[in-house]
Write a structure and sequence with these properties.
Structural class: alpha/beta
Number of helices: 17
Shape: globular
CATH class of the largest domain: Alpha Beta
Number of domains: 3
Largest sheet: 11 strands, mixed
CATH topology of the largest domain: Rossmann fold
Distance between the termini: 52 Å
Radius of gyration: 23 Å
Number of strands: 20
CATH architecture of the largest domain: 3-Layer(aba) Sandwich
Helix content: 25-40%
Strand order of the largest sheet: 6-3-7-8-9-10-11-15-14-13-12
Length: 509
């Protein structure tokens, strides 16, 4: 037994024991007060009367009454353009040290989201909490001596007017604590490589030199990296290279859709831990093995609000209507989808992050990511969310013994009638199965979603399925000049983008 590993594990366990189970509602009330207090002298705080909010009988309600909803475009145009110019005290005290370039979904223009020193501190604290939570999982002492491979974006940040810019994973990796650097892989030299494919080549070449115990990153790109290592060394699975691999910290999207294809690359079972690191902050992490849900970090510089995810509250572009109802943590209900809003120590206020979530346990503040507000198919009243789409795809995987880690869908007109056209990423496309897959997919969605069933009886004529190699989705990302890092495939496309997608598929299949 490893004495060093035992000592580290025991210290982590002590640290976790010192963190009592939070009263999340109370923690959120304190967080809001701290945010308002810190920002009351900023231009934003003065404009919206943070002093008056703090002195009101019900600060959370007064906060809702005075401050409107913001998405990125509105926040940037009205406030962050000044922050980007280096003007201090706009929506948070001081200036931002970094700007996170959010790749968002493929093809969209990068956002420049301020990352303050307070946010970097919050991200570090969240990381410590996640490490401390490992004591709740059944991991041997030896695990705590192994190295961790963090597959994010390049740490080669770009200087712009005295501030540094890059994706949030690159910013985070460039600010890792000194005590962690000995465990961090692929190491600073490789992590600085800008070109994704070149970085993957270097990881594959050096893989045998590392004793990897844990992986961290977005599932789609992690799969590509693992396949690259397996191919380079001519082995059957990744455990033949990293026999001590025991943990994968997934992030960015729900892991469930990738589970089957991901596990096929392993030689033995591993523990999967879900995390929620967005460009705007570290929002949640899984803290116990009994669930795959993640606990919101309610006492770490982020105040959460929730709008019911219903078509009548959302514009076609995914933004919120001004009169959409909203609640804080105290008013949420389990098993209902919400649009997530955040206010943060980087100066985002009632900010639409673009994700939809669902509470699996309200008392523990545990959530699952269910989709994106923009990834919502409602052209003919089908009201189809990504959550329902993923459930239907999992059904196909199980029924046909397929691995379908990626898909794209759009509403299209064929002979003046609407169809939902799906492209499914599979290892071995089979045109003979496409009609059957369409029938089963259609039936599953009708059973799971009454609005979809109604649409199918009226304006939605049917479902068309095409199966294509999974790699086409990743090459599409590269074609859009967005590959690796925090990039996520755009699963629901509008007509203009879908036409470009189909042209790309026809030229590359």
């Amino acid at each position: 037994m490893s004495l060093k590993g035992t000592l580290i594990k025991n210290l982590i366990g002590i640290g976790e024991g010192l963190v009592s189970e939070a009263n999340h509602v109370s923690a959120q009330a304190k967080t809001l007060t701290k945010l308002l207090e810190r920002a009351k002298e900023t231009a934003f705080g003065k404009f919206y009367g943070f002093d008056e909010i703090l002195n009101s009988k019900n600060p959370s309600q007064e906060f809702k009454n005075r401050v409107p909803y913001f998405d990125y475009n509105k926040m940037e145009n009205q406030w962050w353009k000044q922050t980007q110019k280096g003007i201090p005290d706009i929506s948070w005290p001081g200036t931002a040290s970094y700007f996170a370039l959010s790749s968002g979904t493929t093809g969209s223009k990068s956002k420049r989201i301020p990352v303050t020193e307070d946010m970097l501190d919050a991200i570090r604290k969240a990381g410590i909490k996640q490490v401390a939570a490992l004591s709740n999982f059944d991991l041997p002492p030896e695990f705590f001596e192994r190295e961790i491979l963090m597959l994010g974006s390049s740490t080669n940040l770009k200087e712009n007017s005295g501030r540094w810019e890059g994706e949030i994973s690159g910013i985070g990796a460039s600010n890792i604590p000194f005590w962690f650097r000995g465990y961090y892989r692929p190491g600073n030299e490789i992590a600085k490589i800008d070109d994704w494919d070149e970085r993957l080549d270097q990881i594959a070449q050096n893989a045998k030199e590392w004793d990897i115990g844990a992986l961290s990153g977005i599932p789609s790109w992690m799969e590509l990296m693992i396949k690259k290592v397996i191919e380079y060394h001519g082995v059957d699975n990744i455990h033949q290279i990293w026999p001590n691999l025991q943990v994968y910290a997934s992030g960015g999207v729900a892991f469930e859709a990738y589970e089957k294809s991901f596990f096929s690359l392993l030689g033995k079972p591993i523990t999967v831990i879900e995390t929620y690191l967005a460009s705007e902050g570290f929002l949640a992490c899984q803290t116990r093995p009994e669930t795959t849900a993640m606990q919101l970090l309610t006492d770490n510089g982020v105040y959460f609000e929730f709008v019911p995810f219903k078509p009548e509250y959302i514009h076609q572009d995914g933004s919120l209507k001004d009169d959409a109802p909203c609640t804080n943590l105290e008013g949420v209900k389990p098993n209902q989808e919400y649009v997530l809003l955040i206010s943060t120590v980087s100066g985002a206020w009632r900010y639409l992050i673009g994700d939809t979530i669902e509470f699996s346990d309200v008392d523990k503040a545990e959530i699952k990511i269910t989709g994106r507000t923009k990834f919502f198919l409602n052209v003919v009243g089908s009201q189809l969310s990504v959550n329902k789409m993923n459930e239907a795809i999992l059904g196909l995987e199980n029924q046909f013994n397929l691995k379908i880690p990626e898909f794209v869908v759009s509403a299209v007109k064929i002979n003046d009638e609407y169809y939902h056209k799906w492209y499914l990423g599979v290892d071995s496309p089979d045109e003979m199965e496409e009609k059957t897959l369409a029938q089963i997919l259609d039936k599953s969605l009708q059973e799971a979603n009454k609005n979809y069933a109604v649409a199918r009886s009226k304006s939605l004529k049917g479902v068309v399925v095409r199966t294509i190699p999974v790699n086409v989705f990743y090459e599409w990302n590269a074609f859009q000049k967005k590959k690796g890092g925090q990039v996520k495939t755009e699963e629901v496309m509008k007509e203009e983008k879908f036409l470009k997608w189909e042209k790309f598929v026809s030229e590359n299949c």
